[in-house]
Design goal:
- Helix content is 36%, strand content 31%.
- The chain has helices at residues 2-18, 28-34, 73-76, 85-94, 103-108, 135-143, 147-158, 185-199; strands spanning 38-44, 52-55, 67-69, 82-83, 98-101, 118-132, 163-179, 204-205, 210-224.
- Strands 1, 2, 3, 4, 5, 6, 7, 8 and 9 form a nine-stranded antiparallel beta sheet that branches.
């Protein structure tokens, strides 16, 4: 009995010495991919359902996506997307709580030297929804293209490089940039200016280190054309 007590006490003390268990901070990209979508490198209002796209040269069609339009959105003339109720409920649950951009995601923001001053970037999501178009909608978009777009889509399709967005994760987001302590005003500017420039018109400044974006696409489900 005494031996058992000694072992139990040792285990207890060892657990205490290890300190409290740290809460796991979720990655937005991991969550997007767990839902079955490809993450977008830079969330924006571009490339929603119906969009005809291809990957930027040298990036391939791997998550996180770096895309460009094959045809201007006004030429595609996509109808208003539908909301997928069940998928929206699932995504809303998945995006509850706080998220954090990892070092890879920060590098993809192109912060340059400013990244040296950033401790981390925390995100919170709201108004999460899954937008989609039916397959006949996608076909109607392609059938209604003008000759220039039609030829371009055909050219890229023959190279297996033409895609169309069928579903997308769309949400409002708040970015909270945590800078390293003791930075000068100049260093803060170096850190934050590239962040704002890279996200461009997709975010609004709420405070010195807090930015918000509405209706941004964070993950896409693409179909090959």
């Amino acid at each position: 009995m005494r031996t058992l007590c000694t072992i139990a006490c040792a285990v207890s003390l060892s657990s205490c010495a290890a300190g409290p268990i740290q809460a796991t901070v979720k990655s937005p990209r991991a969550t997007i991919e767990e839902l079955g979508y490809s993450a977008v490198a830079l969330p924006s209002t571009a490339y929603g359902p119906g969009s005809l796209v291809t990957s930027l040269k040298g990036n391939g069609l791997q998550s996180p996506l770096k895309l460009t339009y094959l045809c201007r959105p006004e030429y595609a003339n996509a109808p208003q997307p539908m909301i997928h109720p069940a998928a929206t409920s699932e995504a809303t649950r998945a995006f509850a709580g706080s998220f954090r951009l990892d070092a890879t995601a920060l590098n993809q923001l192109g912060l340059g030297t400013g990244a040296d001053y950033v401790e981390n970037v925390d995100l919170s999501f709201r108004n999460v929804r899954i937008e989609q178009l039916a397959l006949d909608d996608l076909d109607a978009i392609r059938s209604g293209l003008g000759p220039v777009c039609t030829n371009l889509v055909r050219e890229y399709s023959e190279k297996n490089l033409a895609y169309q967005t069928q579903q997308a994760i769309r949400a409002d987001v708040i970015y909270r940039v945590r800078l390293k302590r003791g930075l000068s005003a100049e260093a803060k500017g170096i850190a934050l200016k590239p962040f704002v420039l890279q996200l461009g018109g997709n975010v609004q400044e709420e405070s010195d280190t807090t930015f918000s974006g509405e209706g941004l696409y964070h993950g896409l489900l693409l179909t090959k054309v």
